[in-house]
Amino acid sequence: MPERDGFSLKSCSLCPIRCGANRFIGPGACLAGALPRVALVMKHHWEEPPISGTAGSGAVFFSGCNMRCVFCQNHDISQKSAGEEKSADALADIFLYLQLQGAHNINLVTPAPHVLTLAEAIPLARKNGLTIPIVYNTNAFERVRALKLLDGLIDVYLPDIKFYSPQLARLWGGREDYFSFAAPAIAEMDRQVGALQTDESGLAQKGLIVRHLVLPNMRSDSYALIKWLRNHIGSKTRLSIMRQYTPMHAARFMPSLHRRVTDREYKSVVDYALSLGFTDIFTQKKEAASAAFVPEF
Known about the structure:
Layout: E1 3-4, E2 7-8, E3 37-44, H1 49-52, E4 57-62, H2 75-78, E5 84-85, H3 88-100, E6 106-109, H4 115-127, E7 134-138, H5 144-148, E8 156-159, H6 166-173, H7 178-193, E9 197-198, E10 204-213, H8 219-232, E11 238-242, H9 263-275, E12 281-282
Parallel strand pairs: 4-6, 6-7, 7-8, 8-10, 10-11, 11-12
Antiparallel strand pairs: 1-2, 3-4, 3-5, 9-10
Helix pairs in contact: 3-4, 8-9
């Protein structure tokens, strides 16, 4: 699907970068070409409990990314055009395969560059028998206009909101304007799916879960993000405060980022969220900060 609703892969403007690349000729700033490259398909058991459940989440990892986070755990694929190109038909078949394997949902990891193809693949999979929820697992650096193409197709939005400060976003994520796009994007996700809804087994069926990864030396930025979330989306939002930060990629060589988060840092962020009225918070134990939980691509 090269064109839809004013978007064209011949002059790409799907994400906030709006690089204008002709992705039929070469990759955009996200490193993606015209067709998505799938780097890994697996049943993922290390997401939030309503996503992974007991049988696992049907994760589809796309390569490339529109951010350049120096600490990215998936840098082996996010900073490369890795994997095999897949058409909309092929993606629909992958979704159906994961359903046959017993996955609780289809978990689209780093999907932003592929909105046009996904807008074709998801209805096709539904037509051919897909019944489990679709999870949109994103860095939140999205354009609202692009997200509107997915309205009614995505069941669960799982944005990982990273930075409030433009300075930190530039230093550690490569995108100074990150929050100015992530904030309205998450508001749009909330408009589309609302508060998290689970079935009798506690599995996510529809709704929003907002993730935030606590980083070393950056508690004030975490506080600002959580306060914004309370003020603009609401404290009823399911919040996942992650402790899994492990120095990887370029962060291993940066003094501010070359260590794990301390007990005090992590607890202070969780306590701050509780003080603002968030009650349903997913948390992680210290053991989550391990490279052992990073998939092998």
